[in-house]
Amino acid sequence: MKRFLILLFFMGLAVDSFALSPQGPDYIIYKNDTIQTYNLLIEEYLQKTKDDQGRLFNLSFRNSIDGSSGNSFNCWRGYQAIYEIRNDSLFVNAIIDCHSLDNENQISKNYIHKIFGSKVHNNSVFVDWYSGNISFPIKSKANKILRWDGVFERVFLHETMITIEKGNIVDIDNLQNYIDLEKGINRIEKGSINSILFNQIKKFKWTDSNKIDCGQKYSIVIGKKGKVTDVIMPEYTTEGFIETYWDSKREYKYCIKSMKKALSKLQFDILKRKGKAIEEKFIIEIWFEDDGTIKNWTY
Q: 3-state class of 83 per DSSP?
């Protein structure tokens, strides 16, 4: 039993490492440029058509096409793909070992025949299984990453977005994923938002702060129009938890209502993903001292 528990512990470490490690992108050839893209189209095909024996908890531990090596946490899917836009269609030109394109001393092997078999024509595969949008950054000195999930997806300020219907190019559009409102608060740098939220909370007149302790962890949603649209306490999401840990539901409601009121006047710039406005969540934890001073306890 002890050996089994130790094995589970190390498996857990491996899952966390693979799940949380930054992942290498695929590539797309567009107008003679080879550009990084964060759209897993091959993975979608494999999930639909293949019984992938190299997977565990929806993560691959192969780190190579044939499964013979596995020492990089930065390519859990086991390959990188190279796409090309050609004749108003999207094709896969190559499936290569992880990071082999970055290694000048390594000749990249192409496993496209191994994966797709008879679907390969003229050394490429028509991406007829995919409908949706793909995007990639526009090459420009003014471009920058707006958001990154810490693992794979990156949202760039300036992107090219391609709309695809069963492999056929329907539309190509250059877009900006940020609207700079005239009186909007800058949110280019995500790390600055917490301080802005806290300063607004600190300025608010907490009328019952000497009676009700609102020092809690809060989840704050900045909506698609740049306004704070919701505030919740993530540790108290059910009636049972509220009744157990709060003296009364009135106190709980007071804290939520006060937080919403404190943040109601904030107007942020608008953030987008693939050209569409998105909402964004922030966690902030506050603490009330006995003299009414508010501290930012956010990690």
A: strand
Find out whether 84 and 124 touch, Cβ atoms under 8 Å.
Answer: yes
Residue 175 reports pLDDT greater than 70 = yes
Please check whether residue 60 is in contact with residue 52, taking contact to mean a CB–CB distance below 8 angstroms: yes
Please indicate, yes or no, whether the overall pTM of this predicted structure exceeds 0.90: no
The rounded distance, in Å, linking the Cα atoms of 164 and 162 is 6
Q: What share of the chain is helix, strand, coil (3-state, %, to 5)?
A: 25, 30, 45
Give the residue extent of every domain in the chain: 2-176, 190-296
Which among 227, 231, 229 is positioned nearest to 267, based on CA atoms? 227
Q: pLDDT tens, 224-280?
A: 999 999 999 999 989 999 999 898 899 999 999 999 999 999 999 999 999 999 999
Question: Strand 26-30 to strand 80-86: parallel, antiparallel, or no bridges (unpaired)?
Answer: parallel
Instruction: Output the CA angle 126-127-129, nearest 5 degrees.
Output: 130
DSSP strand pairing (26-30 vs 33-37): antiparallel
- What local confidence, expressed as pLDDT, does residue 86 receive? 93
- Residue showing tokens 């900006």: 176
Single out the residue of 250, 204, 213, 253 nearest to residue 233, CA to CA.
253
pLDDT tens string 137-170: 998 999 999 999 887 889 999 999 999 999 999 9
Query: Using an 8 Å Cβ cutoff, are 251 and 110 in contact?
Result: no
Q: How far separated are the first and last CA of the chain, in Å rounded?
A: 37
Task: Tell me 244's DSSP state.
Answer: H
Beta-bridge mates of residue 185: 268
